[in-house]
Amino acid sequence: MTEQLGIRKIIHIDMDAFFASVEQRDHPELRGKPVAVGGSAARGVVAAASYEARQFGVRSAMPSVTAKRRCPDLIFVKHRFDVYREVSQQIRAIFRTHSDLVEPLSLDEAYIDVTQDKMGIGNATRIAEMIRAEIKKQTQLTASAGVSYNKFIAKIASDQNKPDGMCVIKPHQGADFVAQLPVRRFFGVGPKTGERMAKLNIHTGADLRAQSEEFLRQHFGKSAGYLFRASRGVDHREVKPNRIRKSVGGERTYGSDLVSDTDLEEAMEKIIEIVWNSIEKSGARGRTVTLKAKYADFRQITRSKSLERNIEGKAEFADIGRELLASIMPVENGVRLLGLTLANLEGVVEAAEEASAGEAGQSAFEF
């Protein structure tokens, strides 16, 4: 019955403040103190923050000067991505003792489908407890887990009781669980979409569920189908361990068009910082850097540069980004969007989040 309905047992594991926790583990003098990985008191962007720092509002991708202003006692430490990758491989090996269906999203989180678990335990909650215990035993780090019948809910559930916690949402609980969620907890609902929803008096999953798919399509375009299904606790995406990611990047649209060389160069430096943090977090290594620019008249161009080898580090990535920007300067009509992407990647899994069609059924097996 459950297999026919496509119900799965899915665990989402998310390491707690991963980069910062590794630093606190390896440097006892940092334990219990507010720590930011990456950046410095004067410049750069925070790659990760300890829970002590988060209490002051310090977050990843935040400019270092802002983080320091919010937390004057913040300690900045240099990142060690080789160490983080090594620990990540340890953790993934633990996952694979229970299932071959492991889909990493980044160095510090992954989905695991344990519908048919290797050890024959048959209880996803028990498996999640075992995984968390083994991670702590082997790495001295804590992980939080979400256990549910689909990826959408499992991922949200893993954040419910952080740090070092677990949340289990069974199939018959899914729709009610989603109903009470603020819409900002839905993947893809950022500040601007959240504002549009608030103006439409949509604040929770229940408010979303009350809307027709046609209404959602009218106001949110391509996201309508995803929002319609997710608000009902529906997501039948499979855990896909072999999905290869094609690129890692980011872009930014500006409220005022960038015209001067100085404004463009300053904007590029911020994009370099943010995109490189994403590259490092995903563990990506690639050979091609692409610049995307959209002009004030909405005309869009791209410029790329490829090497025979992988980009060696942030400095080289930044130099290529600046070189590509210089190739389109000076601009006449202004630039409303800039973005950078690293492509031709090696061994990085895709972190896709599109919900697939289908209706959630009931499950009789153990969670």
From TrEMBL:
It catalyses: DNA(n) + a 2'-deoxyribonucleoside 5'-triphosphate = DNA(n+1) + diphosphate. Keywords: Cytoplasm, DNA damage, DNA repair, DNA replication, DNA-binding, DNA-directed DNA polymerase, Magnesium, Metal-binding, Mutator protein, Nucleotidyltransferase, Transferase. Its main location: cytoplasm. InterPro entries: DNA/RNA_pol_sf, DNA_pol_Y-fam_lit_finger_sf, DNA_pol_Y-fam_little_finger, DNA_polymerase-Y, DNApol_IV, IMS_HHH_1, Rev_trsase/Diguanyl_cyclase, UmuC. CDD domains: PolY_Pol_IV_kappa. Gene3D superfamilies: 3.30.70.270, 3.40.1170.60, 5' to 3' exonuclease, C-terminal subdomain, DNA polymerase, Y-family, little finger domain. Mg(2+) binds at D14, D108. It is found in: Cytoplasm. GO terms for molecular function: DNA-directed DNA polymerase activity. The active site is at E109. Its cofactor is Mg(2+). Binds 2 magnesium ions per subunit. The record marks F19 as: Substrate discrimination. Residues 10-190 form the UmuC domain. Belongs to the DNA polymerase type-Y family. Monomer. This is DNA polymerase IV. The gene is dinB.
